[in-house]
C-alpha cells in the first residue's frame, strides 16, 4: 500500500507535467505519453483493490482463499494497458498515413525536458515497485512495475521522436507514438499471459521443482519420491507429493515421515500455501 500511494502521487505529478509540456510544446508523442502515465494511476488503483481482496481469509464459499483474485486484477490491468496502447497507435497511424507531413507541428524544447524527466522518474518507479513485488511475491504489483517500465520506454520513444522532429523530421513524432504503442502492447501481453497461467493451475518452473525434490529427499524416512505435482494459485502455490516409506513401519511412524516432509516444504518455500503428502509403502 505504501508503494502504491507513492507511485500514484508521482504519476499524477508526471501526468500533469507531461500533458502541459505536450500541449504547449505541440508534441503528439508527449501527449500520448501523458495518457500512458494517466493509465498508470488507474492501474495502481486496480492493484490496491486486487491485493486487498486477495488477502481476505478463506470463508465458507471460498475455502481455498482469495489469492486468485489478484490475478484477475492483473488481467484487468493488462486489458487497460492494451487499450491505452491501441489508441496511441491509432493516433500515430492517422498522422503517419495522413500524408500532410509539412503541416505537422515541430515540438518545443519543453517536451524534450519532460521526456528526460519522465525517463528518470519512471525507471526509478519500476525498480522501486519491482523490489516490493519480489519481497511480497505479488503478481499484480509486479505487473504494475512493468507498467512503469513500459512508460519509461515510451518516454524514450517520445524523446527520440521529439528530437527527430526538432532537427527536421516531423514525421518522427507520430512514429514515436507508434513505437510506444508496440512497447505497451508487449507489456500488456506478458502481464495477461502470466496472470492466466496463475488461473489455470500452471505448474511451477523446473528450478523450484528441483529445490522441492532436494528438500523432500533430505527428510528422514523418505526412501523415494513417486510423484510431485505443483500448481500456481495467485501468488501462492500448492504442492502434492507421493513419497515411498518403509512399509513395515506403523501408521504413526509413516504419519511422522509425512509430517516432516509437509513441514519442511511449507517452511522452506514461502510461496507454498499448502503441501499434501501421500505415503506409499515399499
TrEMBL record:
Domain Cation efflux protein cytoplasmic residue range list: 205-281
Positions of transmembrane segments: 35-51, 72-90, 110-129
Origin: domain of life: Bacteria
A GO MF label: monoatomic cation transmembrane transporter activity
GO CC terms, sorted: membrane
Protein topology in the membrane: Multi-pass membrane protein
Keywords: Membrane, Transmembrane, Transmembrane helix, Transport
Cross-referenced InterPro entries: Cation_efflux, Cation_efflux_CTD, Cation_efflux_CTD_sf, Cation_efflux_TM, Cation_efflux_TMD_sf, CDF_Transporter
Pfam families xref list: Cation_efflux, ZT_dimer
Subcellular localization, as worded in the UniProt entry: Membrane
UniProt xrefs under Gene3D superfamilies: Cation efflux protein transmembrane domain (1.20.1510.10), Cation efflux protein, cytoplasmic domain (3.30.70.1350)
Domain Cation efflux protein transmembrane: 5-200
SUPFAM superfamilies the UniProt entry points to: Cation efflux protein cytoplasmic domain-like, Cation efflux protein transmembrane domain-like
NCBIfam families documented for this protein: CDF (TIGR01297)
Family: Belongs to the cation diffusion facilitator (CDF) transporter (TC 2.A.4) family.
Record-given protein name: Cation-efflux pump
Organism: Acetivibrio saccincola
